[in-house]
Amino acid sequence: MITKDFDELAAPIDSDPVRRSRAEEFRQKVEAKIFAFQLAEFRRELGINQVDLAEKLGITQGGVSRLERSADPKLSTLCKLTSALGGTLSIEISVGNRSVNLSYPTSSESSSLDGQDHLRGETVSAPPASKSV
Length: 133
Known about the structure:
By secondary structure, the protein is of the alpha+beta class. It has helices spanning 6-15, 17-45, 50-57, 61-69, 75-84, and strands at 90-95, 98-103, 120-124. It contains 5 helices and 3 strands. The chain has a 3-stranded antiparallel beta sheet, with no helix packed on it. The longest helix is centred in the first third of the chain and has 29 residues, at 17-45.
C-alpha cells in the first residue's frame, strides 16, 4: 500500500489558483459553522434555553436560532448576546509580537448600549500562546 503525506496530497490544489480559491471558500464556510455551533453549545452548557435567552434579548426564539446559525454575526449582536448570558466579550488582535485586548461591557454595563460598539482596550506586549472561543 502506497501512502502519501498531506503536503503531497494538497500540492495539486495549492498549485491551481481556482482549486485553491474553492478550498479557501470551503474552509471559511466550515469555520463559520464551527463558530455558530460553539455559540449554541455554550448557551446549552450554561443551562439556558433559546426561549429564555430570547426574552433577555428582547427578540423571538426564532431570532436566537438564526443568531446561533449565523456565519457572521455583528459584533454589537455578540456583545448583546454575551451581556444577556451575564458575561463579558473579549477579543484579542495580534500583529507580530504586539497585541491588544478589547473587552465589551458586562451585563451590568450593557444598559448603555445603543447599537454602538463600546470598547475598553488594554495593550499587552506578547501574543497569546493559544486561542479560544
